[in-house]
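Methods — Computational structure assignment.
A single polypeptide chain was analysed. Its primary sequence is given first, followed by the predicted tertiary structure written as structure tokens.
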Amino acid sequence: MAVAVEPMEPDDWPSVRAIYLAGIATGQATFETTAPDDWQQWSAGKRPDCRLVARDGQGVVGGAALSPVSKRAVYAGVAEASVYVAEEVRGQGIGGALLAALIAASEAAGVWTLQAAIFPENAASLALVKRHGFREVGVRRRIAQHHGTWRDVILLERRSDVVGNGD
């Protein structure tokens, strides 16, 4: 499927939110159980320079964003990646297009390490990030409860080949 990956705008939030809520409903995408209603609330926790949407001509079919992992200056180049794709178009390369564009945007913004925390049961997301250079660095066992059940997450990271290598 041909998609255009573009910067996310405030008007995209209702579509991105619906896709995110569908991901939440799977029980395999995130510990979150709801999504903010308004753009400002969601946007406050994201890097402003690394928010993207995928459009298929009909509308928004996916979204991706980076969240800072810390407010400490030493970690300014480390961010957590999130990618969500509409259920009806999963498996068609949209997640890969979004993640590739997110990696490029992150490097343009000076980010040297991307990280992800993925439920072990989410095989599709694990395969996606590994195809894009993420490597497994560990497992956080029983890190938090999700709907009353203790869950593990696999920690993965991707180190940039162009940012933070002696420059």
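Note: The radius of gyration is 15 Å.
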